Amino acid sequence: MPTRIQLSRHGGPEVLEYADFTPPAPGPREVWVRNRAIGLNFIDIYYRDGLYPLNLPSGLGSEGAGEVEAVGAEVHEFRVGDRVAYCTGPQGAYAELHCLPADCLVPLPEAVSFEQAAAALLKGLTVQYLLRQIGRFQGGETVLFHAAAGGVGSLACQWAKLLGVKLIGTVGSAEKAERARALGAWATIDYRREDVRARVLELTDGQKCPVVFDSVGKDTWDISLDCVARRGLLVSFGNASGPVSGVNLGILAQKGSLFVTRPTLSGYADTPERLRAMAAELFALLGSGQLQVDIAQRHPLREAAEAQRALAARQTVGSTILLP
Predict the structure, then answer these.
(1) SS3 assignment, position 42
(2) Contact call for residues 200 and 142 (beta carbons, < 8 A)
(3) How many domains is the chain partitioned into structurally?
(4) CATH number assigned to the domain comprising residue 33
(5) 260: which residues sit within 8 A by CB, 6+ positions away?
(6) Which end is more exposed in the chain, N or C (fewer Cβ atoms within 10 Å of the end residue's Cβ)?
(7) What is the extent of the structural domain holding 154?
(8) Is 226:158 a contact under the CB 8 Å cutoff?
(9) Which residues lie across from 209 on neighbouring strands?
(10) How far is it, in rounded angstroms, from Cα 36 to Cα 51?
């Protein structure tokens, strides 16, 4: 019988249970994927603790890579044995076997391993829509990117450099600063030791940044607003420190007629065609070696709780994967 991580109540990592389960049979447009590697992401914590709604009891997780094990009667684009990856669809990726709609799957080329795909798909598609769709950079721009040594940030440093964008990354240690610069960050700011606002002014000759990317949320909101250039854009795409609330829109006028967006992957990869086109661009860069995914932590599936504790405490670098 396959195993999975499940929860029957919201709370901390202790609510996660490792148990046998019986996956549902694939519906007409569904598939079974035999997971070979599973991605660990901050959004999994949001579902676990109740920030995002979840019908309990439930499995957990949204990202994985493996092989198609069974297909529904109306699935024609995938066959048993196909290499696939996914990062959207129903919760339940923390499992040996996952049943999900075929529209959520993307083909996985041989040049990209299961571990690479599980570590990079959600984070890489996030960077794709941030830099390629929201940013639409021409090259030469200077942007601020919080948490530049994390899973998303590690890919953003590399992709920004490929686009000719000068990325200033905030980090929490000298080690993480060195890592971000090695990956392509133009400059780094250690927020534990340096004044982020002052350093951004210094690095941009007082001009600030036309775009600021913020996945931290509550703790960095005010800092981010102060780093956006006049008529610039603040992209708030995560809540690692807690959600931003009580926003006074008048502050956008006071700070220089700023724009703010709160995007999600589902808002950009909103059709199977767009999802697969975005994934194809990401996989081409991974397969050619232009993008490197650093899998710094690997845990057996049964250790998902420990892996989430480390992620929430910002004790990780790069990407973390679970192995069934």
Answers:
(1) helix
(2) no
(3) 2
(4) 3.90.180.10
(5) 233, 234, 235, 236, 252
(6) N
(7) 139-262
(8) no
(9) 228
(10) 28
pLDDT tens-digit map of 221-268: 999 999 999 999 999 998 878 888 888 999 999 999 999 999 999 999
Could you tell me if 139 and 163 are in contact, meaning their C-beta atoms sit under 8 angstroms apart? yes
Same domain for 286 and 238: no
User: Do residues 155 and 182 make contact, with C-beta atoms less than 8 angstroms apart?
Assistant: no
Measure the CA–CA gap between 239 and 237, rounded to whole angstroms. Answer: 7
Sheet holding 17-20, edge to edge: 17-20, 3-7, 58-59
Handedness of CA 199, 202, 207, 209 (dihedral sign): negative
State phi, psi for 165 to the nearest 5 degrees. -95, 135
User: At 177, which CATH number?
Assistant: 3.40.50.720
Checking if the pLDDT of 189 tops 80, the result is yes
Q: Please give the structure tokens belonging to residue 227.
A: 């780093």
Task: Give the C-alpha separation, 8 to 57, whole Å.
Answer: 4
Residues 232 and 280 in one domain: no
Residue 230 and residue 256 in one domain: yes
28's tokens: 């007409």
Across 33-61, average pLDDT: 95
E strand residue ranges, the chain:
3-7, 17-20, 30-39, 58-59, 64-71, 83-86, 97-101, 105-107, 142-145, 166-171, 187-190, 209-214, 228-236, 259-261, 295-300, 319-323
Same domain, 226 and 300: no
- The kind and range of the H/E element at 211 are strand 209-214
